[in-house]
Structures are given as C-alpha cells and as structure tokens.
C-alpha cells in the first residue's frame, strides 16, 4: 500500500495507531476480509438483511448503538465525542453515506471471494463503499474513546440505491438526515487509479427518470389508413420528434435527452393496431431543467400524438436528480485527501450520465461525492461498472477510510 500513500501517511500507518485518524494495520486486514464477505453474499435492494446484520454486529462490538431503518434493511449510527455536550455545542452532524445493495447480474470473476449467490454480484462497488464507511466509523469511535473526536459523525448505510427512485428517499423518511448539516460519499471508479480520487464541483452525475407512453386509436386496415388513426406512424413520430422538439425548447447545455429503449405495436402486417407502447429514459445534466422535464414531456408528447389523432397516456416516473456537489464540501474532500495523500492524489473528473440517488440527500443538505479510484495502477484492462468482471483494488479501502476520517476532523476544525 505504501506506494499509493504519501510518505507522511505511510509513516503514520506504520505506527499502527489511529490517534490522528489513520487506519491501523490490524483494522486494515479486517476490513478487507469484511469487504470480501459482503462480495461473496450480495443482496438486492430492500433484501439486504444479512448485510445489515453484519454491519450492525461490528458497530455494536465497537461500543456503538446502530439503529436499523424502518424498512428493516440499512441502518444509521452516530459516533459521538465522549463529552458530547461540552465538545459540540449543538453543532450539526457530518454524515458519511454508503449504499449496501448488489445487482441482479452474475459474477464472472475467478477470485476466491467470487459471489456465492447465483445471478447476484456487487458489480458497482457498494461492498467497498460499505466497508469504507464502516472502517471510518471504527476509527472515529477509537478517537472518541481517547477524547480526540471533536464533533459527532453519522454513519449512514442506505439500502436499495439501484432501485428507482432509490433507497435514499426511504432513509430520509426514517430520519437519516435529522440533525445532519453536511453529507459526503464516495463512489468506486474503475477509470481512476487506487490511491487517487476524482472530484468535480457542481453536477457530477446525471438525472435519470423513466418514461412510459401508451398510444391508442380505433385501428383498421392498412389499405385505408386515411379512415383511421395510423398508430404505428404516430408512434414513430413520437420516437423521432420528441428528442428533436426538446432540442429546440430546452437550452442544449442542460443536456436533457430522451432515449427510447422499447417500442411495441401490432401483430399483423396488414392491420393497423389499436395500441402502441413506448418506454425510455430521460437524462438531464441540469437541476432546474430536470425539475421542469415532466410537464414539458407531457406537453410535447400530447402535441405530437394529437397531430396524428392518437390518444396518449404518459407515465413519467421520477428516478433521481443529478448529484450536484456543493463547492465548500467539495473543497473539504479535496483538502482532506491532500492532507492524507498529497495534492497529486486528487484529479478532476467529468460529469457522468449515470444516475445516483445520493442526489436526494442534496435536496435537503449540502454535500459532495468523490470518485474513489479502484483501478490497479498500470493495469491496462478496461473495466466498467455494472459488469460481471468488475472488481476493486482493495487498497482503495484504506484511501476511502482515511479520506472520510480526515474530512471529519477538518470539518470540525472549520467550525
């Protein structure tokens, strides 16, 4: 690991102490084992009972008092200074967020910790996110026992990130943000080397919603389309014209885009059908444009359908808004990473068109997400998220833990 650390951080790690928030060697090994256990037993959203129990058990053994969320999976746990009243003075908490669910895809890797559950895998790095927040909580708890923790920190282990509109909304309803003033998170990035993070102020992910459209008409014979509603043509015009109209009604810098994934209509070549169905996604890089998108899409689709005398029913399913990193929290993460591993360990990152339900927290409190590098340095193999061969360089766990602990200490010092 030392080749991925600054000389100062490597020296602190060799001392085997967590008095300054660094990760002790003994705990590092335990966290790698914990991550591998999670990786072998992935659970889908709202089914993470084993994962929740494992996290709760380890936090309880550290003398903490975790609380399982109302839905039965996921939990929150506050780490308080030993003399909380004197040290805090009512200061809002800093929350560290992890997501704990896996994906419904097979694990195709050949490793000892390969998933033991058929067609289930931690192919997005949530096992790493969970381990990082757990490790940070254990280090912060050790600081609290030695009167070295200046403010309370909330550990938030959220279920069902992969399920629209995301388990973040359930966590918020369960009180996960009560008393929280700021929230931070990491997300694994297989394009960034382990030992580094990617940061971007402002929007770092895209909004992602789902769109379902049903068109209907009286149907008829293809020999007489002028006597009925040519529903296939109407559906085709919705497919092609909706994106074109949006390009003229919304500032292109907002990145509002509709992409169709499914179109279905008809059963015979000489019969004009009575029904057509279209399904797609709506992605948007801009928060105000995302908020206006449902009304706009309803109006545009209705207009196009009406031109072809088709009736339209539209189901616009909110997914997640874009993650918009608040500037001061982004700088907190930058400064924390630089303090532990040097300024060269932070790189700029692009805005992704993927969605992340961490954005729901940012509708309530300021916060930021960093991209945690999990690529083994000098590994030329291209990898991506949501693929069966996804894996993480486990040295990233130490980086994530020390990033979070340093952020907690710096945030307290900023007041």
Report on the structure:
By secondary structure, the protein is α/β, with parallel strands linked by helices. The protein has two domains: 2-205 and 323-414, 3-Layer(aba) Sandwich (Aminopeptidase), CATH 3.40.630; 207-320, 2-Layer Sandwich (Alpha-Beta Plaits). It contains eleven helices and 16 strands. The chain has an eight-stranded mixed sheet with strand order 1-2-4-3-5-16-6-15, with helices on one face. Helix 5 (126-145) links the parallel strand 3 (93-99) and strand 4. Helix 9 crosses helix 11 (395-414). The chain is elongated.
Task: Summarize this structure briefly.
This protein has helices spanning 7-14, 25-40, 49-61, 84-88, 126-145, 168-173, 231-249, 287-307, 327-341, 359-362, 395-414; strands at residues 67-68, 75-79, 93-99, 153-158, 180-193, 197-199, 202-203, 207-216, 220-221, 257-265, 271-272, 275-284, 311-320, 324-325, 346-348, 367-375. With 415 residues, the protein is an alpha/beta fold. Helix 5 links the parallel strand 3 and strand 4 (153-158).
């Amino acid at each position: 690991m030392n080749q991925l650390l600054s000389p100062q951080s490597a020296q602190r790690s060799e001392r085997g102490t967590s008095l300054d928030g660094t990760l002790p060697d003994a705990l590092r090994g335990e966290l790698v084992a914990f991550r591998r256990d999670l990786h072998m037993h992935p659970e889908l959203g709202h089914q993470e009972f084993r994962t929740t129990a494992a996290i709760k058990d380890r936090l309880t053994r550290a003398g903490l008092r975790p609380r399982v969320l109302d839905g039965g999976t996921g939990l929150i746990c506050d780490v308080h200074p030993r003399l909380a009243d004197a040290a805090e003075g009512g200061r809002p908490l800093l929350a560290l967020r992890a997501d704990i669910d896996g994906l419904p895809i097979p694990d195709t890797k050949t490793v000892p910790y390969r998933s033991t559950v058929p067609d289930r895998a931690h192919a997005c790095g949530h096992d790493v996110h969970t381990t990082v927040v757990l490790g940070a909580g254990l280090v912060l708890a050790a600081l609290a026992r030695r009167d070295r923790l200046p403010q309370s920190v909330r550990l938030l282990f959220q279920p069902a990130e992969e399920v629209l509109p995301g388990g973040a909304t359930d966590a918020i309803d369960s009180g996960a943000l009560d008393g929280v003033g700021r929230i931070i998170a990491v997300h694994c990035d297989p394009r960034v080397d382990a030992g580094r993070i990617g940061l971007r102020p402002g929007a770092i992910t895209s909004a992602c919603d789902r769109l379902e459209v049903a068109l209907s008409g009286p149907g008829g014979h293809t020999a007489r389309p002028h006597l009925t509603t040519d529903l296939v043509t109407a559906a085709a015009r919705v497919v092609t014209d909706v994106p074109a109209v949006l390009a003229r009604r919304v500032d292109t810098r907002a990145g509002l885009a509709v992409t169709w994934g499914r179109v279905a209509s008809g059963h015979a070549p000489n019969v004009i059908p009575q029904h057509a169905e279209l399904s797609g996604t709506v992605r948007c890089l801009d928060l105000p444009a995302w908020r206006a998108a449902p009304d706009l899409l309803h109006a545009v689709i209705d207009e196009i359908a009406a031109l072809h005398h088709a009736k339209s029913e539209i189901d616009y399913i909110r997914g997640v808004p874009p993650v918009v990193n608040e500037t001061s929290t982004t700088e907190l993460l930058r400064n924390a990473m630089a303090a532990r591993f040097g300024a060269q360990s932070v790189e700029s990152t692009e805005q992704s068109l993927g969605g992340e339900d961490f954005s729901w927290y940012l509708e309530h409190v300021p916060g930021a997400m960093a991209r945690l590098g999990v690529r083994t340095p000098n590994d030329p193999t291209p990898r991506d998220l949501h693929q069966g061969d996804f894996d993480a360089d486990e040295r990233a766990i130490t980086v994530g833990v020390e990033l979070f602990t340093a952020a907690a200490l710096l945030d307290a010092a900023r007041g």
